[in-house]
Design brief:
Structural class: alpha/beta
Distance between the termini: 5 Å
Order of helices and strands: EHEHEHEHEEHEHEHH
Oligomer: single chain
Bound molecules: D-xylitol-5-phosphate, zinc ion
Number of helices: 8
Shape: globular
């Protein structure tokens, strides 16, 4: 299991220190939550702060857009050369076009599905995707409870993924901890995002290791 700590739960007064700590602690990706105050009822960070994160990070960035105007934000963050940019399928009229745009920058493309969105809705996009992110909370905030219907959903996505594009990773975001990591693994999940679980613990390296099952 690959682990992407979400810096949403980091200390923003000591952001470089916290980013270095999770990278030294053996994380696989650094998950960055971009919220615009419209698609979700919260507002986070833009490219000025994320470029500082990119400088401090020794692991690749995984940028999760929770915004209304996806194309504008893709253009804003592409120069930072993240490994992945993901956007919400519920908010995009032309997902195929946007996937092509993300890839044209040499960035891997991912789509995000809210808890209610069925995996079959992206069946005809799967062949073009590098990753699918399944939300296991309603997007907008860290520290929420895990919605466990994501487990059968990941199972269904895995069946589709194995048939259509075995190279596409399955990522889960929200409420991930040592309590549900084994169920996620069994469901076929490849990458987990964990914010509060990692940053609440004194020993963040140990927290990361406990999820690398
Ligand atoms: C929620 C974000 C998550 C959040 C996860 O909208 O997408 O990445 O930081 O936080 P935890 O792990 O605390 O649920
Ligand atoms: Zn996220």
């Amino acid at each position: 299991m690959l682990v992407a700590p979400s810096i949403l739960s980091a200390d923003f007064g000591n952001l470089s220190r916290d980013v270095q700590e999770i990278c030294d602690g053996g994380c696989d990706l650094v998950h960055v939550d971009v919220m615009d105050g419209h698609f979700v009822p919260n507002l986070t960070i833009g490219p000025v702060v994320v470029s500082s994160v990119a400088k401090a990070a020794t692991k690749p960035l995984d940028i999760h857009l929770m915004v209304e105007n996806n194309t504008f934000f893709v253009e804003l963050f592409a120069p930072l050369k993240p490994e992945y940019i993901s956007f919400h399928i519920e908010e995009e009229k032309h997902p195929h076009r946007l996937i092509q745009k993300i890839k044209s920058y040499g960035i891997k493309a991912a789509v995000v599905l809210n808890p209610h969105t069925p995996p079959e809705s992206i069946e005809f996009l799967l062949q073009d995707l590098d990753m699918v992110l399944l939300m296991s909370v309603n997007p907008g905030f860290g520290g929420q409870s895990f919605i466990d219907t994501v487990i059968p959903k990941a199972n269904r996505l895995k069946t589709l993924r194995d048939k259509i594009n075995p190279n596409c990773l399955i990522e889960v975001d929200g409420g991930v901890s040592d309590k549900n990591i084994h169920a996620l693994k069994e469901a076929g999940v490849d990458v987990v995002v964990a914010g509060s679980y990692v940053f609440k613990q004194q020993d963040r390296a140990a927290a990361i290791r406990s999820l690398q099952v």
